[in-house]
């Protein structure tokens, strides 16, 4: 039976230094999107990454893009009626 020979894994497109830069940019301003970080990374000539690569780097660092849900605004009148009900 024939089998494929084991291949070497694909070479990473980012170095540890670039990963750190991306993580620092994201932690400095948590509202930056991967596209915004991509535009800021154009300053570094050794780094030509796609937006998707930056997104993977952020997920790998544990910086998933999630937004906290807003609490509903409960008026003073509704709080009082709830307190009397409870």
From TrEMBL:
Occurrences of domain Transposase Tc1-like (ranges): 19-86
Enumerate the Gene Ontology biological process terms: DNA integration; DNA transposition
GO MF annotation list: DNA binding
- Signal sequence interval, chain numbering: none
Q: What is this protein called?
A: HTH_Tnp_Tc3_2 domain-containing protein
Q: What is the lineage of its organism?
A: Eukaryota, Metazoa, Ecdysozoa, Nematoda, Chromadorea
The record's section on InterPro entries has:
Transposase_Tc1-like (IPR002492)
């Amino acid at each position: 039976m024939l089998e494929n020979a084991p291949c070497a894994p694909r070479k990473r497109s980012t170095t540890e230094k670039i990963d750190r830069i991306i993580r620092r940019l994201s932690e400095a301003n948590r509202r930056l999107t991967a596209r915004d970080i991509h535009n800021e990374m154009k300053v570094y000539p050794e780094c030509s990454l796609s937006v998707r690569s930056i997104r993977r780097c952020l997920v790998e660092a544990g910086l998933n893009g999630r937004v906290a849900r807003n609490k509903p605004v409960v008026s003073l009148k509704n709080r009082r009626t709830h307190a009397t009900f409870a």
